[in-house]
Structure to design on (595 residues):
């Protein structure tokens, strides 16, 4: 092919793309406009937020390791503070993974906490990880990252399941505040002992914490969190709360077998 | 008092910051199409050769040949040290040795349980393969997991490789072989059983996995406190004048204390980072983003090896801080 024809060819295809109506191109795009180019994105979006549309947004930061060295404990950071002044602020954050056998990870209502969260998940293979963030005006915004993994995290038993020690510690809570990790904020780190079985290991049914919330002494929730199977064993979750210490906080929750979690969270 | 002690340790660590060690160009040019490691033994002392691996992380391009193996022709038979990452490596290692010496190989010694120390053992099935007893149990327990991992990372280079642990437990002892007096010592910390071999004839110290040079130390079986204590022991040994050259399992052959100091500097930095980060309340995901100090940046396998270490060990530091009574 002569250089001339090659060039004309390139020009021509560019022109064609420009002339096509945008809607038609979006229809052709089986990734739903996903900047990470994942064919699973459209179905993931529908599973996560239904028929609503979501705007890809740099204001939603999702950070994972470049490579998941431990596929059973992949650390993720989600930070939607960039949307604090958009659409009335953040109402909820839903985290989902394109290529996990169980794709929904968690659903977080920050309420009085900052719209950010750190936690660990299991990954079965390399995949995009998404945070769908709904602002109070009902709009959805989505941030993504790509995590490489050797995988296998969802289909092997966790350590305490493998050695049987989970039953001795089930539902125990460790919680601790840390001041000024972020300026003007109080960090709360919570660890709840639970095997968080995915149901994908032969002979071990799904067994996981479904709900967690932080309540004050008047019964007001400071944040609410719904968890799903991919959250790692003995979940360790990091929240950012207002700087003033509040006495009488409790962590309340339950798992899918009805076991209750109820623990004081010291000042 | 405790505070003072910490300050003193920090000051010492600062003053003992390790010098860099020249990394010579790799002599072997591995050929992926022919699965040829092109092993080039290099003589470093009387009767003593090393076969240097690339100072790097495992990759298909380097055939996962990142380890230094060695052999000593003692006059009363050859002692082979470590057999490399694959069956193929072991076979090519054996041919390379047989090209250089007519002495028969009397024994093959593996310095710890990690796969690149013993995955070439299939090529040495007719010779005694030896390691510390604890290393052998580890090889038996973890061999198949190692194999899965290396097949994934190294691909075709692994063809036909099966984990074949050392068959004979060796005790710490001094062997007189020909003119060579070989002192075998058991230290620990990089793994639970780290064999170190000092050839008193040549002053060559085969330091195994306790010393890394110009490469981020691997820590899957580390006990950091014990490792640091073992480095002190090695420092005394080197300072005593008995050691003329140090052969680490990963990184260039060198003289003096530079490798010991680099390894110590790294382990102290890493453990301090984990402790202080956990006390501040940082999450693993945040700690993974820690910039590496300038003096470590040029090291091979950076930052992948740092990330592996943090992913494995940082959760224990977090858990200790969360479990500590008297939460703030």
């Amino acid at each position: 092919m002569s250089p001339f024809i090659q060039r004309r060819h390139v020009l021509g295809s560019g022109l064609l793309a420009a002339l096509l109506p945008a809607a038609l191109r979006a229809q052709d795009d089986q990734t739903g406009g996903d900047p990470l180019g994942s064919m699973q994105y459209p179905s993931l979006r529908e599973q996560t937020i239904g028929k609503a549309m979501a705007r890809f947004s740099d204001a939603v930061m999702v950070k994972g390791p470049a490579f998941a060295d431990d596929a059973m404990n992949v650390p993720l950071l989600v930070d939607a503070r960039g949307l604090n002044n958009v659409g009335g602020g953040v109402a909820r954050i839903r985290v989902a993974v394109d290529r996990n056998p169980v794709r929904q990870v968690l659903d977080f209502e920050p309420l009085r906490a900052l719209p950010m969260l750190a936690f660990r998940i299991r990954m079965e293979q390399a995949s995009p990880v998404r945070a769908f963030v709904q602002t109070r005006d009902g709009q959805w915004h989505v941030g993504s990252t790509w995590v490489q993994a050797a995988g296998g995290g969802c289909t092997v038993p966790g350590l305490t399941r493998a050695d049987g020690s989970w039953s001795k510690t089930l539902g125990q809570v460790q919680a601790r505040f840390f001041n000024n990790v972020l300026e003007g904020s109080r960090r709360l780190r919570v660890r709840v002992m639970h095997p968080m079985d995915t149901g994908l290991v032969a002979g071990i049914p799904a067994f996981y914490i479904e709900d967690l919330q932080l309540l004050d002494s008047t019964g007001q929730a400071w944040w609410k969190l719904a968890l799903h199977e991919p959250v790692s064993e003995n979940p360790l979750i990091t929240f950012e709360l207002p700087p003033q210490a509040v006495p009488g906080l409790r962590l309340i929750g339950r798992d899918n077998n009805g076991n209750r979690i109820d623990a004081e969270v010291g000042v | 008092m405790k505070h003072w002690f910490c300050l003193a340790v920090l000051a010492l660590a600062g003053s003992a910051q390790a010098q860099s060690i020249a990394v010579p160009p790799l002599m072997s040019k591995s050929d992926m199409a022919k699965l040829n490691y092109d092993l080039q033994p290099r003589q470093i002392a009387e009767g003593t050769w090393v076969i240097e691996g690339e100072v790097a992380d495992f990759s298909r391009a380097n055939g996962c040949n990142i380890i230094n193996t060695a052999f000593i022709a003692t006059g009363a038979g050859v002692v082979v040290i470590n057999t490399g990452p694959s069956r193929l490596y072991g076979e090519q290692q054996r041919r390379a040795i047989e090209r250089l010496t007519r002495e028969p190989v009397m024994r093959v010694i593996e310095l710890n349980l990690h796969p690149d120390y013993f995955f070439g053992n299939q090529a040495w099935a007719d010779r005694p393969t030896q390691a510390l007893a604890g290393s052998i149990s580890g090889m038996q327990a973890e061999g198949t997991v190692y194999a899965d991992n290396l097949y994934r990372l190294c691909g075709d280079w692994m063809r036909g490789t099966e984990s074949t642990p050392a068959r004979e437990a060796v005790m710490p002892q001094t062997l007189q072989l020909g003119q060579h007096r070989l002192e075998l010592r058991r230290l620990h910390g990089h793994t639970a059983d780290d064999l170190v071999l000092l050839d008193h004839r040549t002053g060559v110290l085969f330091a195994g996995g306790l010393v890394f040079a110009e490469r981020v130390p691997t820590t899957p079986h580390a006990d950091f406190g014990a490792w640091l204590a073992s480095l002190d022991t090695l420092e005394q040994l080197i300072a005593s004048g008995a050691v003329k050259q140090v052969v680490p399992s990963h990184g260039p052959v060198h003289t003096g204390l530079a490798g010991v100091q680099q390894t110590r500097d790294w382990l102290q930095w890493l453990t301090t980072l984990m402790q202080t980060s956990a006390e501040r309340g940082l999450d693993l995901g945040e700690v993974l983003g820690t910039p590496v100090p300038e003096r470590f940046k040029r090291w091979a396998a950076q930052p992948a090896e740092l990330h592996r270490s943090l992913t494995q060990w940082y959760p224990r530091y977090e858990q200790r801080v969360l479990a500590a009574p008297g939460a703030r």
Q: What stands out?
A: Residues 277 and 287 of chain B are 7 Å apart (CA to CA). DSSP finds nine helices and twelve strands in chain B.
